[in-house]
Amino acid sequence: MTDVCRHDVIIVGGGAAGLRAAIAAVEADPEISVALVSKVYPMRSHTVSAEGGAAAVARDEDSLEMHGYDTVKGSDFLGDQNVIEYFVEEAPKELTRLEHWGCPWSRNEDGSVATRAFGGMTTKRTWYATDKVGFHMLHTLFQHSMRFDRIVRYDEHFVTRLLVDDGNVRGVSALDIRSGEVRAILGRSVILATGGAGKIFPFTTNGRIKTGDGMALAAAAGVPLKDMEFVQYHPTGLPGTGILITEASRGEGGLLKNSEGDRFLVTYDYGVGKKAELGPRDMISRAVVQEIEAGRGISGPYGEFVHLDLTHIGREKLEARLPFVLELARTYAGVDPLTEPIPIRPVVHYMMGGVDTDIDGATSLPGLYAAGETACGSLNGANRLGSNSLTECLVFGARAAQHAVLYSRGSSEGNESALLAQAEAEAARVSALRRHKKGSEKISTIRRELNTTMEEGCGVYREQASMLATVQTVASLQDRASDLRVSDDSMVFNTEVIAALEMKNMVDVAQAVSVSAAARLESRGAHTCRDFSSRDDENFMHHTLCYLEAGGPRLDKKSVHLGHWEPEERKY
Amino acid sequence: MSLGTKKFVITRFDPDRDTEPRTEEYEIPVQSDWKVLDAINFIKDEIDGSLSYRWSCRMAVCGSCGMMVNGEPKLTCKTALSSYGDSLTIEPLANFPTIRDLVVEMDGFMDKFQKVKPWIIQAKERAVEEGPQHQSPEDLQAFKQFSMCINCTLCYSACPVVATDPEFLGPAAIALGHRYNMDSRDEGADERNAVFRGEGTIFSCSYANECSEVCPKNVDPAGAVNQAKFNAVVDWASSFVVKREKE
What we know:
Chain A is an alpha/beta fold. Chain A is built from 15 helices and 24 strands. Among the domains of chain A are: 110 residues, Flavocytochrome C3, Chain A, domain 1 (Alpha-Beta Complex), CATH 3.90.700; 127 residues, Fumarate reductase/succinate dehydrogenase flavoprotein-like, C-terminal domain (Methane Monooxygenase Hydroxylase, Chain G, domain 1, Up-down Bundle), CATH 1.20.58. Helices cover 36% and strands 19% of the residues of chain A. In chain A, the strands form six sheets. Chain A has a five-stranded parallel beta sheet, with helices on both faces. Chain A has a five-stranded mixed beta sheet with strand order 20-18-12-23-24. In chain A, helix 1 crosses helix 10, helix 2 crosses helix 3 and helix 12 packs parallel to helix 14. The relative contact order of chain A is 0.17. Chain B is of the alpha+beta class. Chain B folds into two domains: 103 residues, Beta-grasp domain (Ubiquitin-like (UB roll), Roll); 140 residues, Fumarate Reductase Iron-sulfur Protein, Chain B, domain 2, CATH 1.10.1060. Helix content of chain B is 36%, strand content 16%. In chain B, strand 3 and strand 4 form a beta hairpin. The longest helix of chain B has 26 residues. The model of chain B has no long low-confidence stretch (mean pLDDT 93). At the A-B interface, helix 3, helix 4, helix 9 and helix 14 of A face helix 1, helix 2 and helix 3 of B.
């Protein structure tokens, strides 16, 4: 019999969005019981790797209007403007809460919170804690969450399915990785906060755990994924490993240089002028690719790259502001940024797309919410500005929780035997996987082929033919991924079973990305199609919805919420 | 660049099958820029899918991938393979119960972590409308180093006191409690010092300093334990004095 646990609100994911949601839920209702379910201990969540900062208006020279305009322009006008307006208004409050909870924000001499420059932001509004902002935010949230007994953690539990009855989500089935048992965790509302899916690509800043689990769970329950074609390449990752070198290194004065030592970004006409390095990520990533294609890259064991030069900034400032960059470059690239430039190349960093939600984090499935990178509430549109996503996790993690709490009060319990039958079926599926020694496909082979085709079809620059080829390849990988070989039949901490479950999620998410990309016959934000080089507001000023159905993927459209800012040519 | 082959002698333990840990050897081709974790991932992907261990960020910040490498606790994603000879032994972190292979049980650590009340305690909670508090760069500096702990628990594997007294709060938890005590925004030092003076007392620390030596983030837990001890004593002594004055 399946072990059954009962709570009011179930949160899947223990990163910034999940933890903020958990805290907001108990703040909203001190009687509520919250389950925080994560496949890792919360402090291992990938929020930990975010480096540069979190955006919120903090200075007199700045304004909510300016933050909103920068964000909508950064989104190439595909961001929902009501969502953006709400976001910029809540952002300073959320970062202030983190300050009250102990986040060690870096300070100005007078003791006020310091802010730094970031790409696409017209003024300094990025709060930072040296260059380990995600780490400090995550640990602050996790430690603060420990105050509340009403937050019950299910650490190292992998959610395999949303339990749905009578058109409402009423829980999740979760594999307890340590024991190998599948539990039914029942509740009245569920919030997905599992982060992104960078691991479907070969070069990514993302950690091992970023396999698109929440997106795949929602899609399997019939909820559409939105704007999945928009994949952010961060311009400065280390070749080979993909380890992130923060945008703050450009915010603090770092320069990109080609093989001739020239600061090439100033020759690319996106209009930032002398501050070329502070352009938005999509444009800088394209410039780096063009520079390499023009033969001005530098060759290395992991392909061509360009240089990020910090040597002129000086030891004192680098040690004070970018100590993690120094550590990462020395440890993982073998260069000392005090005296040598850092090799960098564009690398997959962030999914603008995700589970389609409204401004409250609500999805089309009653009781199901999503927040953070897993969600697409359309703050970021076609291109996210650096330092908006950490704040997004807080603002929309909190809002989703407030609405999930409200929903849970009005919701009934559901038909428990039907829910348990679903959990039993999941237990049987996991058990079969655990004994699938004769599967014909090797997990690492499928992963490699998936990575290769995603980069070929859905890279910085895309072509219609290669996107369509990727759609086909992903479809065949989906098929093959249903017969993965699992050599490990142990119940206890079976990481091969987890890898197989993750692989299924990855191919599903990859399908949504490739199919959505192939259908957008324009170039907008991070989706740059060589066959259709300009933005086409007449035909494509809409969100893409992708449903993953038994008969195959189905696309639909959703209108963009306009009203405050008139779409214009995106010129910096 | 190839670095030839290396042999990995890895501790295996599956409670479904084994009564006690055993070892298994893998000889694999390695690259000169690999970390120890890259080799273990190669074994998992290409040779033995049943090998179990934790890892995620591969950039020395998530804290998952600690293991004993040639008998020393190491963050394997940060440890260069090139600094080792032809053969390496890989074991689960010492001083923890093993769940399976290289995966250790974290329950005890998580309990100790929570015990030190690692959150801001203020007599009156601040409203958001009051805005951010001021904190001078000097006040930030007073605790910043102790806030850098990634909870990798290498210090527990190195600590001679943890080895003999499982109740000992341990380096990372004490450093974390001390981090909040030293934060100018916090008013909870009395509560935490009471914890420090209670069960699993911090006074059993023998100043071995091993914890600070193995810390991959230069948190200096030994320094934190020393300061925390001193403060806990001063706090206790002064409360005694105040009580006497009241009498």
